[in-house]
Amino acid sequence: MSDTPARAKNEIIKENSHMLRGGIADGLSDMSTGALAEDDTVLLKFHGSYMQDDRDVRAERSKKKLEKAFTFMIRLRIPGGLVSPKQWIALDDIASIYANGTLRMTTRETFQYHGIIKSNLRTTMQAIDKACLDTLAACGDVNRNVMSTANPYLSKVHRAAYDLARDLSVHLLPRTGAYHEIWLDGEKTGEKTGEKVVEKAGEKAVEQAAPVKPAKDDVEPIYGPLYLPRKFKAVVAVPPDNDVDIYAHDLGYIAIVEHGDLVGYNVTVGGGMGMTHGERDTFPRTADPLGFCTPEHAIKVGETVMTVQRDWGNRAVRKHARLKYTIETHGIAAFRAEVEKRLGFALAPPRPFTFARTSDTIGWHQTPDKKWHLTLFVEAGRLKDRPGVTARSAIREIAEADLCQFVVSANQNLMLAAIAPKAKAKIEAILKAHGVSTAVPSGLRRNAMSCVALPTCGLALAEAERYLPTLVTALEDKLDEAGLANDDIVIRMTGCPNGCARPYLAEIGLVGRGPGLYNLYLGAAFDGSRLNKLVAQDVGHDKIIALLSPLFVRYATDRAPGERFGDFTIRIGAVKATTGGNQFHADIQLAG
Length: 592
Ligand code: SRM
Ligand code: SF4
Fold this sequence. Notes:
By secondary structure, the chain is α+β, with helices and mostly antiparallel strands. The protein is 29% helix and 17% strand. It has helices at residues 9-15, 24-29, 38-46, 58-63, 85-97, 118-130, 156-171, 178-183, 298-312, 323-330, 332-343, 391-400, 424-433, 468-481, 541-558, 565-571; strands spanning 49-53, 70-75, 82-83, 103-105, 111-116, 147-148, 234-237, 251-258, 261-269, 288-293, 363-366, 372-376, 382-383, 385-386, 389-390, 405-408, 414-419, 448-450, 491-494, 508-514, 517-522, 533-539. The strands form 5 sheets. The chain has a 5-stranded antiparallel beta sheet. A 5-stranded antiparallel beta sheet has the order 3-16-17-12-11. Helix 7 runs parallel beside helix 9 (298-312). The termini are far apart. It binds siroheme and iron/sulfur cluster. Residues 451-453, 457, 459-460, 464, 494-496, 498-500 line the site of iron/sulfur cluster (SF4). Iron/sulfur cluster is lined by residues 451-453, 457, 459-460, 464, 494-496, 498-500.
C-alpha cells in the first residue's frame, strides 16, 4: 500500500493547473460548445465564475437532444460590500449588456450576475476590471469575499471593521498571474500590476478597490500550489450588530470597543453551515472563540488560522474539508495551541460583548455627523425593474446624481450611505418616481432571506428565491391575525442543505428536500448565536403554515416580556435546544 494518502479529485486538478490556468483560455475560444471542460469549471471558480445551465429548460432541451442552455454566473469580490456611484453605474451597465438584467445581491455582501454566455465571459471580466473591481477568489478553495458589519460611514469603529475586511481580503488574495493572463487581455504575470485607481467617496475617502498584484515569479507565498482544502470565509462584526452572522464562518472578528475606542477583536473559528441530507457526519456548526487580539495583530492571526487549516484540513474528503471539521477532529485547544505556536505569542482571553440581532434596521437613520443613511429592503436581494417598481433604474439614477455611497448588506439589502442632508429629499423623490417604497416591511419579511436556488443553481432540490416571498405573504396573514405583524422573526429558506442563506441560524429555517418540499427547523437564537433544530421533514406549503400558525398564536399570548420566537419555541418544548458540532442531528424531534 502506498504511504501517500488518498486525495480528492479537486486536489489533483489544482496541482496540475499551472497555478489556476488549466485549459480555461483555450476553452473560452472553443465555439463548438457553450460549456467549458469539467476540470476547467473547477478552476474557473477561483476566478469568480461558475458554469451553470438554465434548469427551467433542461428537460425540454434534453428531449430535443440539444446541449444544456449553458451560461455563467459571475460573483464579484467586494470586501465590506462598498461600491462608489461610478462603480454602481458600471455594474448596472454590465447587468444590462452581458447578464440577465438583474443585479443579485448575495448573503456575503457582494453581487452576482447570472446568464452570461461563454463568448461574453472575458468581456464581462474586463468591464468589471475597468470599474476598479475584480472577481478573483470570489469562489474556490481560497479565502472568499470578506464581510464587515455593513456601512463604514456609521462610526469610526465601523470604518475600522471595513478597513480590516478590505485589508484581509487583499492580504489573502492568490498571487497567481492566471487571472490577469486569462481575463485581462492576456497580460503576463507582473506586466500589469492590477493597481487600480482609488475612487474617492465624498469627503471621507474610502478605497473602493485594492490592488490585485500578481507575484512576478508566479508563486503562492501564503497558499502554496494546492491552495486550501476547501473554501474559507472571514467576517468582521461590530456589536451589537451580528449582521454578518459571525458564528457561521471559518474566521470571525468581533470588534471590542472600550470607552468608545476599538481596542481589538475577539477572534472566532470553525463556523459553517453546509451539510448533506441523511449524512450525519456532515453538519452546521457555530464558531468557537479562539481568543482576543489587538488590531495590529488581526491580519497575522487571520493568516495563521487559515494556514493551519491549509495544513491540517482534510484533503481527501471534500465533504469534511472545512475548518469546522478540522476543529471537530483536533479539538479547539489543539487548534489554538498550533495557532499560538506559529504566531509566537498567546492570544488573550476573549472580552465581553453583546450581540442584539442579525438583521438590518430597514429605513432612514441619521448619524451624529448629520449624514443620512437609508437601508432599502430588497426582496431576496434581486435588484431589478418590474412593471410599476423600477428599483434598478431608481438606484442608477441616484448613482448618476452622485448622491451617496452604496453598501450591500449580509442580509441581501442595499444601503444608501453617507447622504448629505440636502440630498435626502432628492433621493426620496427619485425612489417615489420609480415606485420604490421606503416603508418598513412586516416583522417577518424584513427578516427573511433566501438563496438563489432554481433555475440557476445546479445543486437546488427546491425553490427558494422564487418561493419564499409567497410563503411569507401567507404567513403574514397568520401573524397579523395573532397581532404579531410587526414582531421581528427571522425566517430563511434554501433550496438545498448547503445553507447559502444561513438557514440553520434562523428562528424559522426551511431547507429544500425536493420539489415543493422542505425540512422545517426551529429554535435558533435571534442574535445568531445558537443553531435551530429539525422539527418536521418533507413539508409543503400548507403543512408549513399549519405547523407554524398555532405556534404564532401561542407566542402572541404566552411569551415572556421580550422573549424571542426562537427562545419561545424551546421553552414551550416545540423544539429542543441545540447542541453544536456533530450533536446537531441528535434527538431529532419530528412533529409532522
Ligand atoms: Fe453558497 C454553493 C450561492 C453564500 C454554502 N452557493 C453555491 C453555489 C455556487 C452552487 C454550486 O456550487 O454550484 C450557488 C450558486 C447559485 C446561483 O445560481 O447563483 C451558491 N452561496 C450562494 C449565494 C449567492 C446565495 C445567495 O442567495 O445570496 C451566496 C453567495 C455568497 C458570496 O457572495 O460569496 C452564498 N454559501 C453561502 C453561504 C452563506 C455565507 O457564507 O455566509 C454558505 C454557508 C456558510 C458556509 O460556507 O458554511 C454557503 N454554497 C455553500 C455550500 C456548502 C459548503 C459546505 O461547507 O458544505 C455550497 C456547495 C459547495 O461548496 O460544495 C455552496
Ligand atoms: Fe444552491 Fe443550495 Fe446554495 Fe441554495 S443553498 S444557492 S440551492 S447550493
